[in-house]
Amino acid sequence: MDTVVTALRSALADPDGTVVRTDPAVLDAARTDKSGWTAPGGPVAVVEARSVADVQAVLRTCSAARVPVVPRGAGTGLAGGANGTEGSVVLSVARMDRIIEVSVADEYAVVEPGVLNGALDAAVAAHGLRFAPDPASAAISTVGGNIATNAGGLRCVKYGVTREAVLGLDVVLADGRLVSTGRRTVKGVTGLDLTALFVGSEGTLGVVVGATVRLVPLPAGAPATLGAVFPTVADAARGAAAVVTGASRPSTVELLDAAALAGIAAHLGPQVLTETLGSSSADGAFLLVEFDGPDAAQAALGAAPRLQAEGGTVHHATSAVERERLLTVRRSFHPAMEARGRVLIEDVAVPRSRLAEMFERVEAIGRRHGVAIPTVAHAGDGNLHPNFVFAGDEVPAHVWAAADELFRAAIDLGGTLTGEHGVGVLKRRWLGDELGDDVLDLQRGVKAMFDPLGILNPGKAI
Amino acid sequence: MDTVVTALRSALADPDGTVVRTDPAVLDAARTDKSGWTAPGGPVAVVEARSVADVQAVLRTCSAARVPVVPRGAGTGLAGGANGTEGSVVLSVARMDRIIEVSVADEYAVVEPGVLNGALDAAVAAHGLRFAPDPASAAISTVGGNIATNAGGLRCVKYGVTREAVLGLDVVLADGRLVSTGRRTVKGVTGLDLTALFVGSEGTLGVVVGATVRLVPLPAGAPATLGAVFPTVADAARGAAAVVTGASRPSTVELLDAAALAGIAAHLGPQVLTETLGSSSADGAFLLVEFDGPDAAQAALGAAPRLQAEGGTVHHATSAVERERLLTVRRSFHPAMEARGRVLIEDVAVPRSRLAEMFERVEAIGRRHGVAIPTVAHAGDGNLHPNFVFAGDEVPAHVWAAADELFRAAIDLGGTLTGEHGVGVLKRRWLGDELGDDVLDLQRGVKAMFDPLGILNPGKAI
């Protein structure tokens, strides 16, 4: 038995190993996430923490033993950031999933990190509220995971990313001390903004064990939904730019390119696209635009001619059933990809005005490397998810070569490596290209200050 | 001649001292701001930087000489954060006031830090855009000052604070290196969020020399404005809470208590209040509520009965003239205070649901110390500005004693020392009460990492 496992079982009063798990299947599952990347080695234990005290005990024990700790939630990450690496202790907070408090008057909730996004939304919906961050994975991903990656999602074009939704955090530091940052007020500027620093830090500065998150009112009335088919993806990108600015901001602007539509057609059957969009869109692109709030219908009416001006054939959903059919096209993208093999989902972002150019680059890169790169974009944010489908457990070299060009293209267009998934393991080698040496040094300095022994998620994020 | 002045004039090629100013009047003006606090000593020079290179030269020179640097903009701060202290070099970026780029398609502007908030708004209004942060001082305060303090303002109840509006920063570090953080995309999670860390850091981590800020569309149509008079301030606080939640968020919710109204009546003449509000409100309170956007009129109609339910007598502005009269009541508060003496403007915030209680505490503290504490609140944010008017140049001891109780009351109600003005010099002694020792240690560790020689705005903020 590994000595750190013995020490953890003693510290957590867990002689039978029901909390400090070492079953091979549990260890193995913790090596991977939804990124398609599996750590080559594996952790020595997975601790399924039940409380803040458990988390503190793990960090004290691992600090004393100089053993790396990999914080983990539901394991739905897309960059390998929570994957248990060789010799590490995976510290899962998935069981810490309580909603501690909901304040309707002050529009916040106090939650444990393991609560699912969907569960929080369901719990507060009765009060006419919701948690704004809305990753596509909301049903299976945790609030703690959102915080670790500063996740975005489909409606952040209107409602902002996770950082804007986090008022305060309880964090266990590398040495086991528990600290609270931030506040329950909507404003507050006392001291440096450590809350914002922890958001998106991917478990490298501390382990989030509690969060005070902002809730926002559910929009009044029914949403208004448009689907538009465009001759080319560049037209669709221009259509997206045309509807996202102006006084009424859409709550969703999602773009699917021709390769993505082809994958969906193969998955759902081509007649679904033909019936829904009036086209199987082999060469075109699809844009889904939704407005919510009291002026939703009016805003959609105003947006339709702007889509038409860019060459769009616009379908206005006139019933909940029609809306559902339009949403289904978008929602079927990831299942369609996963049905074809393992998937590497990339996550570049560019200024919105460069979106059409970035799509052209994606197409050119795909042609050059002989790979299809079906792509969905949160087009209102300029955030593209180019997908690579491959066989086997390892991302092939030619896929990484194509991804490398993708990252460089995004940076070249004034963009970023990762809009919302995080750096994790998979994007570390491009970090310096985006940040530059001086900023990277500052980041490493901050990391060293919070974690002088380097035990928190080493080899990830920075 | 001080040796650092000689070194600065040499480094900046300024033999005549037109950039490195040492005129007594200039040095003296830099000792104070709008807080009512004047540094007991004074700076040895005020450098009026014209360029990034100037800022770099100042930091290199002052690092070499171990001389403190106090970054400063327009000097409109309310906590002494930019006041030139004994033996320091004040580094003014007020002359660096260019708007470098405005991207209408991507809704951002790239600006120098000295640009006035009002000037930026005026420059982008023609494109149907504005910079969301809206301090009451917008006409005279700089974007750099907003960033230094993470300023809020009147419309942040709907549009968020400065942090949400800053995409990226150019910062000169203590040793003179220039770094860029953040991005021009609306999303991006590569590395730690140093941009958010610099926002609100009050010049203690680096000197902001450029910013990429988000612009937001100007709301469509005319705003809809309500003024309501309540029998008590607690009723008005409940009225504010009743209109700020729900699907239509007001863009402004400002509360004036009885002492504030008395001051305004004395300043404008009591008939102005009587004509505008139908009451001189000697015992009551006034709430200004404004909605903008396409459903403004509808939202105001919905809000009126909620104000009435809390005891409000509601005036619905039916013309631009009537709106202006309601806004004038609020806008006259600060001039009314300044007409009576020197003013210490405090800045506590509490969860919105505790606003009525906080007003009760303010009243009780005023009674106990025999001082009037006229108070205006950004009530939608739970952010109160209790004002103390005094004679002479020094804040009297009994005012600080009352302020001390105010800060403790805010923290006791789950709130914060400062909602939007910053800690500066004036609130440092209460920092530990709010943050606790461990968080304060972390903040000091971050500070030491960015500024190992401790030359950046020492004695301020943290």
UniProtKB/TrEMBL annotation, chains A, B:
Residues 39-218 form the FAD-binding PCMH-type domain. Keywords: FAD, Flavoprotein, Oxidoreductase. The keyword Iron-sulfur does not apply. Pfam families: FAD-oxidase_C, FAD_binding_4. Gene3D superfamilies: 3.30.465.10, 3.30.70.2740, Vanillyl-alcohol Oxidase, Chain A, domain 4 (1.10.45.10). Its cofactor is FAD. InterPro entries: FAD-bd_oxidored_4_C, FAD-bd_PCMH, FAD-bd_PCMH-like_sf, FAD-bd_PCMH_sub2, FAD-linked_Oxase-like_C, FAD-linked_OxidoTrans_Type4, Oxid_FAD_bind_N, Vanillyl_alc_oxidase_C-sub2. This is FAD-binding protein. The lineage of its organism: Bacteria, Bacillati, Actinomycetota, Actinomycetes, Micrococcales.
